[in-house]
Amino acid sequence: MAKRDSSTRTIEELDEKCKLLLDVIDERREVSVQDVVSRAVRKGFKDYEAARALHKLKMKGLVDLMDPEPPRRFTSYLTSSRCTWFWLLTFIVILTILTIYVFPQITPFIYLRYALGSIFVLYLPGASLIELLYPKEHDLSQLERVALSIGLSLALVPLTGLALNYTPWGIRLDPVVAALSVLTVALALGAAFRKYLYHKLKHGV
Fold first, then answer.
1. For residues 93 and 183, is the Cβ–Cβ distance under 8 A?
2. What is the model's pTM?
3. Rounded to a whole number, what is the largest CA-CA distance in the chain?
4. Under 8 Å CB-to-CB from 85, ≥6 apart: which residues?
């Protein structure tokens, strides 16, 4: 569902396509995205132009896109398309573990291990923490999220190693892989729950 919100920002800076699409959306009621695109096509838009303009309006806060049937439980939210990022992250963690312990250490698997290991250490822990700290999509741009994810990973991984140094397991491959895997997935699960709470608040479910 799409709902116009003209109180957030002026429309002076918008291009002509966005202004035309904003006129298509009824200020008084909620309309489906399909209906908005259909009306835009009748006014001469291409499908992709309407979608692009609608995305721009959403990013500028002039249009609010709402789910007509939002998930009402966390388990439903976790298994919905909104949590694709969580399952992708978990898949990369599992695949990284497989490249370490299951896949043969020969070419080309060794290069896959290097690539996934780099992402596993230098990006995923920080990315999970960033999603936990900033659950709203518009809190940070994608570039800011990537940069902060790398920076926080460079801080979290040494701290994890320092903590392991004071345990009976020490800083070895198995404890490091286990600790980073648990830390990354736990932070991602917490982030998914925070996103779910924001989703409930936004849709009033």
1. no
2. 0.74
3. 69
4. 131
Token reading at 138: 């518009």
Give the pLDDT confidence of 122-176 residue by residue, as tens digits: 999 999 999 999 998 878 889 999 999 999 999 999 999 999 999 999 999 999 9
Q: Which two tokens stand for residue 137?
A: 């999509």
**Do the Cβ atoms of 93 and 185 come closer than 8 Å?**
yes
Tell me the CB-side half-sphere exposure of residue 115, using CA atoms within 13 A.
Answer: 8
Phi first, then psi: what are they for 63, rounded to 5°?
-135, 140
How crowded is the C-beta side of 201, counted as CA atoms within 13 Å? 8
CB 87 within 8 A of CB 27: no
The token pair that represents 89 in the structure block: 């992250």
Angle between helices 33-42 and 47-59 (to 10 degrees): 120
Q: List pLDDT tens digits, range 71-124.
A: 778 888 898 888 999 999 999 999 999 999 999 988 889 999 999 999 999 999
